[in-house]
Amino acid sequence: MLRQFHSLPGLIAALFVIVLSVTGAILSLDPALERSGAVVPAAGQVSVAELAGKVAEHYPGAEQIERTPSGTLIVYYTQDGQVGADRVDPRTGQGIAPHEPSSFSRWVKNLHRSLLLDMPGRAVAGITALMMVVLAVSGAMLLAARLGGWRQLLHPVRGTLSQRLHIELGRVAILGLLLSGLTGAYLSATTFGLASEGVAAEPEFPLEVDGGPPAAIDALPALKATDVSDLRELVYPYPNDPMDMYSLSTHQGAGYIDQASGEWLSYQSHDATHQFYEFIYMLHTGEGLWWLGLILGLAALMVPVMAVTGPIIWWKRQRSKPKLAANSGPNTADSVILVGSESNTTWGFARTLHDSLVREGHRVHTAPMNQLASRYRGAKRLFILTATYGDGTAPSSANRFLARLEKITRTPELPVAVLGFGDRQFPQFCGFAKKVETALTAKGWPQLLPLDTIDRQSTQEFARWGNAVGKVLGIELTLVHTPVRPRTTPLELAERVDYGADVQAPTAVLRFKAPEGGGRSGLLSRLLGRTGLPPFEAGDLVGILPPNSPVPRFYSLASASKDGTLEICVRQHPSGLCSGFLHALPIGGTIDAFIQPNPNFRPASGKAPIVLIGAGTGIGPLVGFIRHNKAHQAMHLYWGGRNPQSDFLYEPELNVYLEDRRLTKLNTTFSRVDERAYVQDKLIANGPELRWLIEKGAQILVCGGRDMAKNVMAALNDIVAPLGMDVATLKAQGRYREDVY
């Protein structure tokens, strides 16, 4: 519900929000530009009387002096029968330049206020401002829910490029957007009488005037008592009319001044409501607070990007949603299926279970695990199908499940069966599913079936589990799941570099390109600098489907699509279906591949040093990070191989990066030499240097096998212990990230 509350206003108002934000950003420059060209004396330094006296020396025909909120002083005058307006220096009264209001600025202001449509446009602008408030508040609530609470609001986020752009820009701009939206909505409400502007000062017109000879303007007591910083407008009396008077408007109020005595003839203060209105106007426009105007302008500039990335996220989410037939409501279903998935593959298995139960006459409700309800009124059983993300953590559609489960206080009666999906080669195989099972048991949740697991999306194991479910339900339940083949791109092997044959660890660096004549590699694409490859960054994953297998194998990318090649580093395993296929692939041979973003594994931007740690083929993405380190951020690489003569991966390239300072320091170890050592040994030997880097805010990126990663973590825990830290602390700070296999 909250997501819909955020998405609908954004989709409806996207175009209007972009118009208002762009015009607002342009207008935000006006106060700063005006202030930069204005001479603003300190408060108490110059009185209105002094200013008017100096202006009289240069403008004998002065008729009016106006001070803008940004401090510019403008004198309106008549000279030789011609009217004019100049900006003046308050210290001397001398003209600086003619006052020429910008027609472009006026047009942009009208576009911003009313979309050039007068009252209907003002209504649309006001509603759009209100929608900006709704978007800012609901967006903050969504982010807090995603990250696990308001205290985690500033923690790192993972997701696709569009998701990270949307969230990071939103976090920076949210306060400015809230302020702009609230003040804009209020100003619009005053236009239509829904809120009051209050009463501007309207002093009583004097009926009796001294009528004596006019005094010198710089000697008038009321003007001498008024500081220039409080001035809004001073209107002179009509020449040679002793019964006319000065009209003075200030921030506090307005009144009339006798030109002979210089005393107030009448005065009226602005009421509190009008002062509040003017304060809101100042906050919205930045007029009088030029620095705030620039902040609001910067926030507004982020809105167009968010207005584009928001619909992209929405569209991708809509496309990735499983199409479930006959999905009953949560309180009318007799069977509930909750799904935890990171890349939507688990949803395919859940849909197979859903459809099979529906065919057997059951009413089934299937939803993400994050939508766990405290009660399902008509349900007789609950199935939880969940994958595990990374090192035993929850996938994105289940990252709030355990917190929601903890809040359920009533004794559960609904029997549950948990099915985990994972890969047995990882130590944390189905780690999150096991956490869910433990939490349910602790809550006293009755068990429909013991925890079961599926290795590498095995359709046979899933069918076996389906038979067990059928026996419990007393039906014949056959779960025939056909994995949906991901949409792939054909790639052609263009280059390979082989290593490791002498140490029985054949390893190859493979570089693929889009085939000639491919749909993405036409003349226009080449002219635009496109490579014909799908978009990806170093550190993302490429899924490769080996022949006669529906299950992809994933490899970390050592290149970005802008490099023109898709580069991976692959070691051949004796029984490896995909690695054997890739090592046997000739130049010109093709593969079917797709990209899986891995945005959580990236070097942080900024000046903090980066420590890259890997072993074997784990060097692939680390080399990619170094290759793109054009800003020469300090990068320290620790890498372990077998023998420098046989499998020193990327040695020539690394030496080039050392020379051009993309790589700060290279630390290597080899395990098949006389002085054998592993990468964790090198870390311990360089403990003081690493501790110093971590004190300087270094981020650590680890890529390679699970055993290596485990040993690296143990070594780093010992290294940072004197700092009162551990790897868990670094992980929580977003400074320790892994890509392990």
Description:
α1 (2-36) packs antiparallel against α3 (103-114) and α1 runs antiparallel to α8 (290-320). The strands form 4 sheets. The protein has an 8-stranded antiparallel beta sheet with strand order 4-3-2-1-5-6-7-8, with helices on one face. The radius of gyration is 35 Å and the shape is elongated. Mean pLDDT is 88; it is low at 519-529. The longest helix has 35 residues, at 2-36. β2 (73-79) and β3 (82-88) form a beta hairpin. The chain contains 20 helices and 24 strands. With 741 residues, the chain is α/β, with parallel strands linked by helices.
Q: Which structural traits does this protein have?
A:
741 residues, eight-stranded antiparallel beta sheet, 20% strand
SS class = alpha/beta
Instruction: Round the mean pLDDT to the nearest integer and report it.
Output: 88
Q: Give the fraction of residues assigned to helices.
A: 25-40%
Per the principal axes of the C-alpha atoms, what is the gross shape? elongated
Beta fraction:
15-25%
Major sheet description = 8 strands, antiparallel
Total helices: the number is: 20
As a whole number of angstroms, the C-alpha radius of gyration is 35 Å
Low-confidence residue ranges: 519-529
From the N-terminal CA to the C-terminal CA, the straight-line distance is 37 Å
Number of strands: 24
Q: Strand order across the biggest sheet?
A: 4-3-2-1-5-6-7-8
